[in-house]
Fold:
Amino acid sequence: MDGAIFSDFCIDNYTGEPTILFPDGTACINVNIVLFGGGVNRADAPKDWTQWRAADAGVAILHGSTWRSTRFCGYAPAPKGLTLAGTFSDTSGSSGSMSAFLAQKSFVLSKGGRFTQTAYVASVTSNSVVSGGPADKQGSYAIDGYTIALHYDGGSAVTTSFVWKSLDPRMFWLDRHGYVSGP
Structure:
């Protein structure tokens, strides 16, 4: 990954995604390239790279030809072994004049290092309603810095990006998707 050491994480107000800032003024908008790319050259994925600069309220990130300010920086790596408790959901949807769509993914995390992962999709039109989702998945999790390892009870495992701010433990980003804890 060009041998660069990053200087900070921020959450880009424009995209809502974690962005990694480098001391040379470049920024990576795909955290997985940096965390798991293992030697990925910036030229191989130019759409995932941009520039940043200091701004009054924090930093500004270049989107196309427009600089957009963001003030949500300072996402230090989570301590190894961190555990969280609660239900954290990523919800998206859209609607039109005759239809609506909703998708929700959730993680129920326990302080004991266990999780339950759920997913739900619903679609409504003027004459039908369709909803459902796959069976819940369970397993254990281990957080270490900017990564989380999910070990499913069925034997499979995946490690992905994890960005969390200790000052607001109600929210984290997992594989570039924001998850928020309910009230």
Summary: The first helix runs from residue 31 to 36. The chain has a mean pLDDT of 82. Residues 77 and 145 are 4 Å apart (CA to CA). The first strand starts at residue 8 and ends at 11.
